[in-house]
Each structure stands twice: as structure tokens, then as C-alpha cells.
Amino acid sequence: MVLGADATSPRGQMLLGAGAILTERHLRLLAANGVERVEVETPGQAQGRPAPAADPAQLEARLETRFAHNDTGHPLIRELKRICRSRNEGGETDGD
User: Fold this and answer.
1) Which pTM value belongs to this model?
2) Residue 47 has what pLDDT?
């Protein structure tokens, strides 16, 4: 099985990235961290990642979710968000 979306703990900690090939060890790790469900790719599904956000408000909502546990005032975090925005506008989705 291939992980279709990032897997995070109930506290928001990133555990596995989308595209990871799930092993028994991964499943134990997810369960130990309180994860009850994950999204998996189905055969023929494209990359398992969301399409670029056409709506700027939708993109900002995705970024707020992704960076919710970070200090958004920190220069590095601001730069990461800027890069994510520009990659999304260019149609690249692997960094969302």
C-alpha cells in the first residue's frame, strides 16, 4: 500500500509523508501514535496528492493547516510558506 496523504498524529506531528510505501512497521508506528485511519492510493491514482489550489483562499487554508504548529513569524517559516505558495502557483504539488 502507498500512503495517499501525509499521516499526522492527533497532536499534528508529521509521522509519514504522502507516497510512503506502508510496511508492518509503519502500521505499528501509526497505531502507537494514535492514528486510526490513513488515506491510501488506489491503483491508477495520480501521485495521491491534492491538485494545486486554484483559489488563493484555499491555498492559504492549506498552508495554515500545514504550518499550524510553527512560529509563522519566524523568517525561515515565512520563507517556507512563500516557497510552498510559489510551487503551488507553478503547478507543483509535492511540497503543497
Assistant:
1) 0.46
2) 52
Determine how many CB atoms are found less than 10 A away from the CB of residue 96.
19
How far is it, in rounded angstroms, from Cα 71 to Cα 47? 30
| pLDDT over 90 (residue 30) | yes
Asked if the model's pLDDT at residue 81 lies above 70, the reply is yes
3-state percent breakdown (helix, strand, coil) of the chain, nearest 5: 35, 10, 55
Instruction: Establish how many alpha carbons lie within 13 A of residue 67's alpha carbon, considering only the half-sphere containing its beta carbon.
Output: 23
Extract the C-alpha cell encoding 84.
510552498
Residues of the chain with pLDDT > 90: what percent? 29
Q: Cα angle vertex 47, ends 43, 52, to 5°?
A: 135
CA atoms within 13 A on the CB side of 91: 0
Task: Give the C-alpha distances (Å, rounded to integers) separating 53 from 21, 49, 72, 86.
Answer: 26, 11, 21, 11
